[in-house]
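Notes from hallway chat w/ T.B., transcribed later so I don't forget. T.B. wanted the structure written out for a chain they're using in a teaching module, and asked if we could keep both sequence and structure tokens in one place. Agreed to drop them here.
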Amino acid sequence: MMMHALSTRIPPSIYTPSQGFHKCSFACRVLRQSPLAVPARAEGIESHRRSQVLRTTALGTLLSAFHMGSSKAETFGFDIPAGSEKWWTPETTAVVTGANKGIGWAIAANMAAQGIRTVVAARDEGRGKAAVARIQQETGSKDVLLAQLDISDGNSVSAFANWSQQHLPKGIDILVNNAGVAYKGNAFGPDEAQFTLSTNFWGTKALCEALNSQIKDGGRVVNVCSVAGKLRIIKDQALQQRFETASSPGDVETLAKKFVDDVRAGRHSQEGWPNSMYGVSKLCESTYTRILAKQLQPRRVTVSACCPGYVSTDMSSHRGVKTTAEGADTPTFLALVLPAEQTGQWWTDRQSQGF
């Protein structure tokens, strides 16, 4: 299968939370070898993303190069543990990013099925509308809203924050950061690394900061991360210690920037980094989650990181062992059931693990 890749003449795409990507011109050529796919620009990137960028949750939904639709329908469903307190009401509001399909769709459907006002935040408005219609049909809930959001674009994040202020005046009770990006094949390089980190880490961080004042005291934030981004992927002891001792978002930003710079300079292996852009991006997201939990603890906001597992979605070519309902189970558990005092932890299969 032929895949498109950018020539070596591409200038780097640079992300800043306030501005998104700066536009850059590029030259494109067709390669028959490695399935390299480098995102071109933030503004006007739509057609390129559709054909080449693999959008995902952690081990979740992707759009493959020539496979836009899912061959298997998503499932949803959530069992509330016996004795759990049902604290939510029809006035409770949940925002789920990357919710147009896959695990994100199942999380949003779980929220709607519990009678929670649910915002489907989706990059593609058309797919978002279809997702909302299906959730309404299958859950019976009419309180499902659609909002366009591309977390890789700082302007889109700002627009979403403005939208939520207007349409969710009472604030947000639950924020599930499920949107993300990954590449398939052996794509690896500075531009790919920049885009991956800019989305999965900087994009998630930007959204959390943009919505900070709108998240209610006592609310929930769930960041869908990945076992691929556990601290153990860093073999260099000194670098691992920098992640362990990171105590501010700025510390994590420094590490994220260092990874991209080291990849660009061709020295990432010597500096102790793994050959996984996705893994490093998710490690940064997980580390940020731990720090965010401490920042929001005075407001009693419960913040969690989790891995949904190996789920049968487009990303796994439907080879995953879990259904989307099973993949959505832990994120939903953390959003609805987890005791507030267990903030700042990393979870999988409803079990707490170390970062």
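Follow-up for T.B.: The longest strand covers residues 215-224. Might be a good example for the class.
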